[in-house]
Amino acid sequence: MGKPESSYLAGPRIDPKPITGRETAADLIENAFLAYNAARLREGCRLFSEKMLGDGGTVGMSLTGAMTPAGLGMSTLIPLIEAGFVDWIVSTGANLYHDAHFALGYTMHRGYPKVDDVALREEGVVRIYDVFFDYRVLLRTDLFLREVSARSEFQRPMSSAEYHHLLGGYVREREHALGLSRKSVLAVAHEYAVPIYTSSPGDSSIGMNVAELALDGNKLRFDVSADVNETAAIVLDAKRGGGTSALLIVGGGSPKNFVLQTEPQIQEVLGIDEKGHDYYLQITDARMDTGGLSGATPAEAVSWGKVDPARLPDAVVMYLDSTVGLPLLTAYALAKVPRRPPKRLYDRRQVLMERLDAAYRQARAFRDERAHASTLPGVE
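Structure (tokenized):
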């Protein structure tokens, strides 16, 4: 045609094969998800599989929304943990509370959103959009939580990860007693030593039941400072151990901020020289223009030191419902990537904290030395 072809036209041609109905989820994503939000899903699947799960990468996940009541704990989260694809988690307490229902032998049911909620209340049925369950499930789960949390090993301050690990052991025992298996994220995380943190421990039925026990003299307290420092220690070790720190952000909210604030904690507060997380992948339906954190972009996170600016081209935001995006991402990764040995970060918490403390002491000594030098006559 005479004129040189533009570099903007260097991308692969859009020329998909017809869908036959015999495709796997991974096949469908590769062949048919070529543009718009489908293409962002494809990019996210490739980022997760090819880079985030690369050698040495430590993957943190944040989790919001009512995922476990809809069964996504069993269908997606447990397979990701068992494959070694998720190394640490920050979740809402609600997801962990509703996760426990399944391990205790209680049932959730598919319902429908257009219903008379007054009639549901009269019949003792609780609704989470189109998920229905018996109100007594709440009461019986509450009782289990109080009975477990009153035991002697809980009578002290602890990080939320330690609480969830201990609780997960009891949940696992109940599963086994009932002849169940692989029903609870808490139980599988306990088995694989995946630490689970809650950014707002009081903002769930778990926190409510712990608060009730406090009125009776129970000594259990959530140590939120331990949560902040332990998560920072995980990220610092990932960065300085020859690997990468990657984040899979499901939804937004407080858990999103909690996984991201690890880098400002390391850099801004502790004064340790770092550059931010290496990989950022988010599934969200939140808009960026409202100013809320849920819709804040990875580019905005760079200004806070949360994301390494050199890694920004790799960041992907998939704009779709998490209940659609996460199962597809899981199916794609399991089809493309071999299982990884679990990092068992929960078992390494003490070592990681010692390394964080040493780096902090060194950075603080350097700052104090510079501050002292600046006060000497003739020194600027």
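The chain has a mean pLDDT of 93. The longest helix spans residues 349-374.
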